[in-house]
Amino acid sequence: MSSFQELRSYLDALVERYEEPSFIAEDPLGIPHGFNDPRDQAVIGLYAALLAWGRRSTVINKMEALCERMNYRPHAFVADFNPARDADALDGFKHRTFQPVDALWFTRNLSDAIDRHGSIENIFADHLPDDPAHPYPVGPAIQGFSTTLLTINPGTPQRLRKHLARPEAKSACKRLNMYLRWMVRPGPVDLGLWTRIRSEQLMVPLDVHVGRQARALGFIERKSNDWKAVRILTDACRRLCPDDPARYDFAFFPPGAQDEPLDEAFTGDNAVPPSSWPTA
Question: Helix, strand, or coil here: 95?
Fold first, then answer.
C-alpha cells in the first residue's frame, strides 16, 4: 500500500498539471477572465457558474451570447437593471432548464441584493457565521446568498429554487462552491478577487466526476453527492492542505471529466483512505 505522503504527492502533481492558464480557454471560467473590471468578473462569473452544466463548449457559447445581451457591461447591466426597460435584453435567453423567466427574475433579484448589500461578495460574506470555530462557514454563506435571492422580491417564482442550491436542502451546491473557488483563490486559474472569505474556508466542489474520483481513492464512502459528502471530502482535503483544500478540485475534476484513469497505486486494494492517515 502506498503511503499518505505518496498520495499527497500524487494529488499535488495532478493539481500542478491542471492548474495552468491553458485550463481557462476551454472552461466557463474563461468568461470572467475576459473582463478587466473585478465587478464585471464577479457578476458574469456568477452567471457562468450557475449555468455550468452540460457541454462546456455549449456553456461558453451561451455565456458569450449573454455578454452581448448585457452590452459587455455585466455589472452595470445588473446593478442598474430595470425590468420595464431591460427585460427585452434577456427575452429568449435560455440554457437547458434555465429559461427566460429565470434569467429575468435572477437578474432582477441579484440587482436588488447588490443594492442592499453593496456587492456579490457581501451577499455571501454577510451571512458568514459569527463563531470563528464554525467548521464549515461557507455553508451558511451559500445558504444566505440563495435565500436572499429567493426572498428579496415577494413575487419571485418558485421555479428559481432549482437554480439556487442550498445546503439546508442537502444539495452539494457544486456550482456555488465552484464560484466561490473562482472568486477567492488566487491565480493562475482562479481570480482571487475577494478577501472576506478565505481560501481555508472553501469547500471542495462536488459533482459526479469529482465524486467518482474521490470514491475510487477512498476519500468518500457515502453514495450520495450531497452536502454531507462535500463536508467529508473537504475534511479529507483539509488534512492534505489546511490552507487551501479546494485546490484539489484540480486533481479530481479535470481527470474525472476526461475519463483519465487514476494511478492504480492509490485505488482499489491500494487505496489510502483518510482513516489510515496520520493524525498529526
Answer: strand
Q: What pTM did the predictor assign? A: 0.97
Evaluate the omega torsion of the peptide bond into residue 100 and state whether it is cis, within 30 degrees of 0: no
Weakly modelled stretches of the chain, pLDDT under 50:
none
Give the count of beta carbons closer than 10 Å to the beta carbon of residue 263. 14
Q: d(Cα 149, Cα 116) in Å, to the nearest integer?
A: 11
Task: State which residues form the domain around 238.
Answer: 4-276
The sign one gets for the Cα dihedral 231, 237, 242, 244 is: negative
- With the CA atoms of 44, 72, 86 and 147 taken in that order, what torsion angle do they form, in degrees rounded to the nearest 10? 10
Counting the structural domains of the chain, the total is 1
Query: Any bridge partners for residue 95, and if so which?
Result: 98
Question: In this predicted structure, what is the pLDDT of residue 280?
Answer: 63
Mean pLDDT of the chain: 96
Q: What are the C-alpha distances in Å from 244 to residues 146, 201, 277? A: 24, 8, 18
Sign of the Cα pseudo-torsion (37, 42, 44, 45, in order): positive
Q: For residue 171, give the 3-state DSSP assignment.
A: strand
